[in-house]
Specification:
Elements: E1 4-6, E2 12-15, E3 22-28, H1 33-41, E4 49-54, E5 59-66, E6 72-82, E7 89-95, H2 99-110, E8 115-121, H3 138-152, E9 159-163, H4 172-177, E10 192-197, E11 207-208, H5 209-218, E12 227-232, H6 240-249, E13 253-256, H7 264-300, E14 310-313, E15 316-319, H8 326-340
Parallel strand pairs: 1-4, 7-8, 7-12, 8-9, 10-12, 10-13, 11-13
Antiparallel strand pairs: 2-3, 3-6, 4-5, 5-6, 14-15
Length: about 350
């Protein structure tokens, strides 16, 4: 665990007699996995701090206080709490795999900080017996997802949709109901990079997944963090009909992870690593460009009065509005030269 994850319902507010302020505390029993981790793995002693996060909310620090019987009391330090910055988002569409494989994948997928949604669908080549596995039930996957979130050090929640009933075969209608259909006129650049993982065939090789995401980001002008959807098939892969549906009708772009034929769990991990890194790269570039624009705005805002509105060309100065006096113009030139590095 890289973050001790807490539910809002676990937090108690009490009044401190010594400080006259309200304190937020959490009691973890000796059987709680988080208490065991703090005591046995992190080896935290009373008075030391651990990193905590509230599901769907803030991150911060809490002071550890060991209790009689092996329990632990966490005292949240309110002055350390902060809201995590906006990050890229990924939705994973996964055709239901072997039951033990999906159980192992729940915490792995949710450990990726960009993953915000997991959609389990029934592919044409999915084994029908897998649809009834208990590993697709909330009472099984909820705790596994929280374990992955603690590993990934994240508080942003992961939404899960399990669509494996008889009426839920992968279709354009299903993707539309789930909000995963591209409705943009150009079918590609609506703000979300849609990646359909495909090995290709003897005659065609899809574009590398990373290139698909980077190209998409370069054509999107939104100021929000970039996002993506990854569609991953079952053990036997997608059918040609499903590939045509995703790519030709639903706005997805066929992409590859390389020439190797991968197991489902390997493909999930590899694709999330590649797409997450590409989105992070796009997000850093977005932040850098916004920072550059903000600095430019701050500089130009220094020249807003009527007497400061003038343009400089190769021959000298052209005034706009009320022409400044010669002395004022010299002052303006000195200031402008200092800010923008103009040599005169």
């Amino acid at each position: 665990m890289n973050l001790i994850l807490l539910k809002q319902s676990e937090i108690q507010s009490i009044s401190s007699s010594s400080t006259s302020q309200t304190e937020q505390i959490i009691h973890l029993t000796s059987k709680d996995e988080r208490a065991k981790h703090i005591a046995n793995h992190l080896n935290k002693k009373s008075g030391e701090t651990v990193s905590i996060g509230i599901i769907g909310g803030q991150k911060g620090k809490a002071i550890v206080q060991h209790q009689n019987g092996g329990g632990i009391r966490l005292e949240i330090q309110s002055d350390t709490l902060f809201v995590p910055p906006e990050e890229p988002g990924i939705t994973v569409i996964l055709a239901v795999p072997f039951p033990m494989r999906i159980k192992a994948l729940w915490p792995v997928i949710s450990s990726f900080t960009a993953v915000t949604r997991i959609v389990i669908v029934k592919g044409q080549l999915s084994n029908p017996e897998f649809n009834a596995t208990k590993n697709l039930l909330p009472e099984v996957y909820s705790s596994l997802i929280e374990k992955g979130m603690m590993q990934g050090g994240r508080t942003r929640q992961v939404k899960v949709d399990v669509c494996v009933s008889d009426d839920d075969t992968v279709s354009k209608d299903l993707l539309n109901r789930l909000g995963l259909l591209c409705k943009s006129d150009d079918k590609k650049h609506d703000g979300v990079a849609r990646v359909f993982l495909d090995c290709g065939d003897e005659t065609t090789t899809p574009t590398p997944a990373r290139d698909v995401v980077l190209e998409h980001c370069s054509k999107v002008t939104t100021t929000a963090p970039p996002s993506a959807i990854i569609a991953i098939g079952p053990e036997r892969g997608w059918t040609a009909e499903e590939a045509s549906l995703f790519v030709n009708e639903c706005g997805y772009e066929s992409a590859t992870l390389g020439n190797s034929i991968l197991r489902v769990d390997t493909a999930v991990i590899a694709s999330l690593g590649i797409v997450s890194a590409a989105l992070d790269e796009c997000n850093r570039e977005r932040i850098r460009e916004e920072g550059t624009y903000s600095k430019r705005q701050r500089k130009t805002s220094q020249f807003t009065s009527p007497s400061q509105l003038f343009l400089m060309d190769l021959d000298g100065y052209q005034t706009i509005g009320t022409p400044p006096s010669r002395n004022l113009l010299q002052v303006q030139l000195a200031v402008k030269s200092n800010v923008f590095g103009i040599q005169r």
